[in-house]
Prior knowledge:
Strand content: 5-15%
Oligomer: single chain
CATH topology of the largest domain: serine acetyltransferase, domain 1
Helix content: 40-55%
Order of helices and strands: HHHHHHHHHEEEEEEEHEEEE
Shape: extended
Structural class: alpha/beta
Distance between the termini: 79 Å
Radius of gyration: 27 Å
CATH superfamily of the largest domain: serine acetyltransferase, domain 1
Number of domains: 2
CATH architecture of the largest domain: Orthogonal Bundle
Strand order of the largest sheet: 1-4-7-10-11
Amino acid sequence: xxxxxKMTKCRTDLIAAxxxxxxxxxxxxxxxxxxxxxxxxxxxxxxPIPSREAVVDILKRTRRILYPGYFIPNxxxxxxxxxxxxxxxxxxxxxxxxxxxLAIRHECIRYNQSCTDCEERGQQNAIDFxxxxxxxxxxxGTDIRAAYAGDPAAxxxxxxxxxxxxxxxxxxxxxxxxxxxxxxxxxxxxxxEYAHSRTGIDIHPGARIxxxxxxxxxxxxxxxxxxQIGNRVRLYQGVTLGALSLxxxxxxxxxxxxxxxxxxxxxxxxxxxxVLGGETVIGGNVWITDSVPPDTEVFLKxxxxxxxxxGGGD
Length: 314
């Protein structure tokens, strides 16, 4: 193809491309119009809403406070530890108070509530959360020791803090639970669903979980909103602490009622067990819908295996 033909083809392609691109304004008009329909979800309005990216940043900053020296490139020692905490806590306060304020304001406007002083509440909720971080560090310490005691494959505490998905999910849950307990909207669920997407472990921030909690392996674990878990409990992968399926009317009636199981102290629930409202030590691959007395083991009876000679002989 000579240069003249090539140039003609290029011009033809440009004209065709321009014709296709000319459809974009009509598509934009359709999208703008769709924002007025009740069957579409959007947030188009003057007030900003919380940022998922900012909430993930809050988690990262909080972990740097809960595990000082682990998740930063620089060294923390006795010379700079006060400076380190000062910088981290101040920065966390600023971003956390802003995101809480945005979450509260969004709820107020969404439900047409009277003014609740969202900026002041955001700052107060943030400082109340920060007051608990030293105690939270101690609680997470019990979880780390429980992981080490319960997993002979663990080489040490550093390995658990750096790499165990169960500890990551528990850490995020305990951060989110503190905010959930204060009544902070939206942010706690963003946090735990972020951990869910990272680990496959789904813990609702409303669940109540005691100290020395350990999730081994972790993938597929589900812990529902009204679950109560005592101290020194261990779960394995695939465990579900859930609720029975409900109709729409039943769901509304039980929305703020207890509908998930209670697991008391010193319980082990092995892989793929499903507990739908009960209390106890549960074996693998069982399905439980009733309460179980304390100090009871629940397991499936070993199935009978049949060996048959495919050749037809005895």
